[in-house]
Design goal:
The protein has a 5-stranded mixed beta barrel with strand order 1-2-3-5-4. A hairpin with a 2-residue loop joins strand 1 and strand 2. Helix content is 44%, strand content 20%. It starts with a strand and ends with a helix. The protein is elongated. The protein is an alpha+beta fold. InterPro entries: DNA_helicase_Holl-junc_RuvA_I (IPR013849), Hlx-hairpin-Hlx_DNA-bd_motif (IPR003583), NA-bd_OB-fold (IPR012340), RuvA (IPR000085), RuvA_2-like (IPR010994), RuvA_C (IPR011114), RuvA_C_sf (IPR036267). It is found in: Cytoplasm.
């Protein structure tokens, strides 16, 4: 299984990169438009890889960071979402915007992705709403701390995530107080 490829970027097109390794072997890698925008032809490049082996193909999907790779992998778990749709999401949205849309049930953000209609957006939100998309890298740490504190008090994560965007507090203590009032 290939998990990372490092070498010289010899060819760059929207959605496709070719990286030549030191041993002379070149790999064609499918990438998002967001990833493509960060690469420079002729430079040493490293991409994280998701290898998908099918009966008729051995495909390599490349990502500049773990967030984009995780978003792609999480989307593949949604029934009816394939690699093309997952890559379209990676090309259109940043991980933080995607996670926020799923957490807040924002179909409007997801339907900005080519190929995703209202039905698919709702399905993505429904199937991923319980997924662990929140990390301290994606949300301000005070929000992450508040979520953990509220969960330890026995509140359900989905209810916390629904009221959190309506809270105005900018620190952990105030956010917990405000959330408790709304959850009670």
């Amino acid at each position: 299984m290939i998990v990372e490829i490092e070498g010289v970027l010899t060819k760059l097109e929207p959605g496709m990169a070719v990286i030549k390794l030191n041993n002379g072997i070149s790999y064609g890698i499918i990438i998002s438009l967001n990833c493509s925008a960060t690469l420079v032809k002729g430079e040493e490049t490293a991409l994280l890889i998701k290898q998908i082996v099918r009966e008729d193909a051995n495909l390599l999907y490349g990502f500049k960071d773990n967030d984009e790779k995780m978003m792609f992998e999480v989307l593949l778990k949604v029934s009816g979402v394939g690699t093309s749709t997952a890559m379209a999401v990676c090309s259109t949205l940043k991980y933080s915007d995607f996670a926020s849309a799923v957490i807040n049930g924002d179909t409007k953000v997801l339907t900005t992705v080519p190929g995703i209609g209202l039905k698919t957006a709702r399905k993505i939100i429904a199937e991923l709403s319980d997924a662990k998309l929140i990390s301290s890298q994606n949300l301000e740490s005070y929000k992450s701390e508040s979520i953990m504190a509220l969960e330890s008090l026995g509140f359900k994560r989905d209810k916390i995530l629904k009221i959190l965007p309506t809270c105005k507090a900018q620190n952990t203590a105030d956010l917990i107080k405000e959330a408790l009032k709304k959850l009670a």
